[in-house]
């Protein structure tokens, strides 16, 4: 039998940590208990007291994204391979149709691109325009293709920006289908006007990027999306929450009982906006992503969101453009392709800045790097937990080992590392993907095409029942 027994470790799930062995048979976990014996033919991996955790789930990546006149350099193979080297075993990427492009056509195109993935992957599908055809395609994607989340870019005017008509129609359709609307929350009109203002004032370098996207540009959109979702009674997931104002808006909505979820990027927790003032264009442009990296004090507010549970997931928004591509915007920062890397570093920087500082327990680390995203996007308990019957996606973690993160050693194809020079304590030594050791002590054995497409069932039965109940509970007209 092909199997793997991971012996002598401490299993850490989001709900508890305990000394236990993990027996994998084929692609799934067969048993988790103390003192398991290896059946004949099963490989034994001695954990030697290390931690044994669910492989990371990154709910926000853009492998080989065609964007701003170029294509992200990490494709579905190199990007997922880099993730495996960092302990991330699943991603949820994005299908982003051009306006007027059928959602189904874009979806099949992206499925073809992702065939080469080395790790498991799912897709959020972006709604970048509205029509009866979009309405119909959303239904097909949910009912036949296992898509249960739809993305809305409130930024990127004259490109993929969704206006309020699209937001309201699409959110309403998502509720009908039992799917989760998600948003990139920045006011695209404000960005457009502020960018123009910067250029008119002669500010054409990367320093213009954060100046044209201040936190209020993000929090206005976050609050608008939260209000639309509240009126329509549909849940909402806000991606890459980067500033205190948006985090507070989500916390207020949740305190009122509204079902809103927030995601934080590893970059926004560790990197600040001083990077844009680097006189070296290449270094500053390498950090151009949206929302931009913020003044340092926002980071503490994002950590508090994760610690308090008002923000639930972490991601990377891995969308990599090399210096030669970023140079498209050398004369005009509006043309710098937006995006940075991070899929290999996410778990290490979060462990180092989160667990080693006492902000997060190891179990809370598992919650924000895998379990919560798996639950929100309906992949749990297949992903996000080590339990009998779950996929054997496992990371062996050495909390004592150190590593200095650098472009010189990273697996990503991009020629920059926003965590350059960070020395972390706590690193993955082994990654197991559906029962196979794909990374061991620096030896990456990522296999092109080994990744599987992850169908994510809708939440329809729950939402529909809730919607009906809400209807019934509408207060009767007050008797005069
Ligand atoms: O906006 C996104 O999430 C994509 C286009 C990646 N780029 C970025 O700057 N975040
Ligand atoms: Zn975005
Ligand atoms: Zn993104």
Describe this structure in words.
The protein is of the alpha/beta class and 480 residues long. The protein has a single domain, classed as TIM Barrel, CATH 3.20.20. It is built from 15 helices and 19 strands. Strands 1, 2, 3, 4, 5, 16, 17, 18 and 19 form a 9-stranded mixed β-sheet that branches. An 8-stranded parallel β-sheet has the order 6-9-10-11-12-13-14-15. Strands 7-8 form a two-stranded antiparallel ribbon. The termini are far apart. Bound molecules: (2S)-3-(carbamoylamino)-2-methylpropanoic acid and zinc ion (2 copies).
Question: In a nutshell, what does this entry contain?
Answer:
34% of the residues lie in helices and 22% in strands.
Task: Compile the SSE list and pairings.
Layout: E1 3-12, E2 17-25, E3 28-33, E4 43-46, E5 51-54, E6 56-58, E7 66-67, E8 70-71, H1 76-85, E9 88-95, H2 103-114, E10 120-126, H3 132-145, E11 149-153, H4 164-177, E12 180-184, H5 188-200, H6 208-211, H7 215-232, E13 236-238, H8 244-255, E14 260-265, H9 266-270, H10 281-285, H11 297-308, E15 313-315, H12 323-326, H13 346-355, H14 362-376, E16 394-404, E17 423-433, E18 436-440, E19 443-444, H15 460-472
Parallel strand pairs: 1-4, 1-5, 6-9, 9-10, 10-11, 11-12, 12-13, 13-14, 14-15
Antiparallel strand pairs: 1-2, 2-3, 5-16, 7-8, 16-17, 17-18, 18-19
One zinc ion is lined by residues 184, 239-240.
């Amino acid at each position: 039998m092909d199997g793997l027994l991971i012996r002598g470790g401490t299993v850490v799930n989001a709900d508890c940590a305990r000394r236990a062995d993990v027996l994998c048979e084929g692609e799934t976990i067969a048993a988790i208990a103390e003192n398991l014996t290896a059946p004949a033919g099963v490989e034994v991996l001695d954990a030697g007291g290390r931690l044994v955790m669910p492989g990371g789930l990154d709910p926000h990546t853009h492998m080989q994204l065609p964007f701003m006149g170029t294509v992200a350099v990490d494709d579905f193979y190199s990007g997922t391979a880099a993730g495996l080297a960092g302990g991330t075993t699943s991603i949820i990427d994005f299908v982003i149709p051009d306006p007027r492009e059928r959602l189904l056509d874009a979806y099949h195109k992206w499925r073809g691109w992702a065939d080469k993935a080395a790790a498991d992957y799912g897709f959020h599908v972006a709604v970048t325009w509205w029509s009866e055809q979009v309405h119909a395609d959303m239904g097909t994607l949910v009912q036949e293709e296992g898509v249960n989340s739809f993305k809305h870019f409130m930024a990127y005017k004259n490109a993929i920006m969704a206006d309020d008509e699209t937001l309201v129609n699409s959110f309403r359709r998502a509720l009908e289908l039992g799917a989760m609307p998600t948003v990139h929350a920045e006011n695209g009109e404000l960005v457009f006007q502020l960018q123009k203002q910067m250029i008119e004032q002669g500010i054409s370098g990367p320093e213009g990027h954060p100046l044209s996207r201040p936190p209020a540009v993000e929090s206005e959109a976050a609050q608008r999306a939260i209000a639309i979702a509240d009126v329509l009674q549909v849940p909402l997931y806000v991606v890459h929450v980067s500033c205190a104002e948006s985090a507070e808006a989500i916390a207020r909505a949740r305190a009122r009982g509204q079902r809103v979820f927030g995601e934080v990027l590893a970059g926004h927790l560790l990197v600040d906006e001083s990077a844009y003032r680097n006189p070296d264009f290449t270094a500053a442009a390498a950090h151009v992503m949206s929302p931009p990296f913020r003044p340092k004090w926002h980071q503490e507010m994002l950590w508090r969101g994760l610690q308090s549970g008002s923000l639930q997931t972490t991601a990377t928004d891995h969308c990599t453009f090399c210096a030669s591509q970023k140079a498209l915007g050398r004369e005009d920062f509006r043309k710098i392709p937006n995006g940075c890397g991070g899929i290999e570093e996410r778990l290490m920087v979060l462990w180092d800045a989160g667990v080693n500082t006492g902000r997060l327990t190891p179990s809370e680390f598992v919650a924000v790097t895998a379990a919560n995203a798996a639950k929100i996007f309906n992949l749990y308990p297949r992903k996000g937990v080590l339990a009998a019957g779950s996929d054997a996606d496992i990371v062996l973690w050495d909390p004592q080992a150190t590593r200095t993160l650098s472009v010189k050693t990273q697996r990503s194809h991009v020629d920059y590392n926003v965590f350059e020079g960070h020395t972390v304590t706590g690193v993955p030594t082994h990654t197991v993907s559906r029962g196979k050791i794909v990374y061991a002590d620096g030896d990456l054995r990522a296999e092109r095409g080994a990744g599987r497409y992850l169908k994510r069932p809708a939440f329809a039965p729950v939402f529909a029942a809730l919607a009906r109940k809400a209807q019934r509970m509408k207060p009767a007209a007050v008797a005069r």
